[in-house]
Design the sequence.
């Protein structure tokens, strides 16, 4: 087995579609649904992996109550994780969203911002570095990028619920989804060994999804 790593959220599906890889393991169902709608992918979901809750981090404050009017909050600029971030901010009472926004709220769905927060969008890999910007008060960061920066859920100011619908999935193409090697990969991934490794690496930030 060859492991291929990517630095953004678009290329893994592009590579799978172009048959440069056989399986990818990195995305949630809502993200795949949106990508398939936009790009016409015909992929097959083979199983679940883990829920990686998203959280808001800060170098300046310890609680939401310390946020001042006009504070700057940075969120991911992709539709799924940006949507998760807006839902997280709404859960904390910082903003209100239009009713029935589902999994994909956008900035245009924000109906209330009582603290006049300056909410900006940034590419997900750049979010941990944004925390060091003196103008940034809070950043909502995906678990994978947070852990690489030495941040864990216990450091989060606001944390997504652990019953989040954003479970990560194992995805293949229609033409190789029944390949024995692919099926064996799924079995190997959904194992006690992988579960132990994920818990060691992500601490409480990886929740079993199968």
Sequence:
């Amino acid at each position: 087995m060859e492991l291929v790593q990517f630095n953004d959220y678009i290329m893994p599906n592009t590579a799978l579609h172009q048959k440069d890889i056989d399986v990818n393991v990195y995305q949630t169902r809502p993200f795949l649904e949106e990508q398939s709608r936009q790009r016409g992918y015909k992929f097959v979901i083979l199983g679940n992996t883990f829920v990686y809750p998203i959280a808001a981090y800060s170098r300046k404050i310890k609680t939401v109550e310390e946020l001042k009017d006009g504070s700057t909050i940075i969120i991911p600029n992709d539709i799924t994780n940006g949507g998760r971030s807006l839902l997280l901010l709404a859960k904390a009472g910082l903003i209100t969203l239009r009713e029935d926004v589902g999994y994909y709220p956008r900035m245009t769905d924000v109906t209330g911002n009582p603290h006049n927060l300056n909410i900006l969008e940034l590419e997900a890999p750049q979010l941990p570095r944004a925390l060091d910007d003196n103008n940034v008060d809070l950043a909502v960061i995906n678990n994978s990028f947070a852990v690489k920066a030495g941040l864990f859920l216990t450091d989060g100011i606001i944390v997504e619920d652990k019953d989040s619908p954003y479970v990560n999935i194992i995805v293949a193409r229609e033409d190789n989804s029944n390949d024995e090697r692919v099926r064996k990969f799924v079995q190997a991934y959904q194992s006690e060994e992988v579960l132990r490794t994920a818990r060691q690496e992500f601490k409480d930030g990886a929740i079993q999804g199968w």
User: Anything to note?
Assistant: The first strand starts at residue 23 and ends at 28. Residues 79-91 form the longest helix (13 residues). The CA atoms of residues 15 and 185 lie 18 Å apart. The chain has two domains: 11-52+164-208, 55-159.
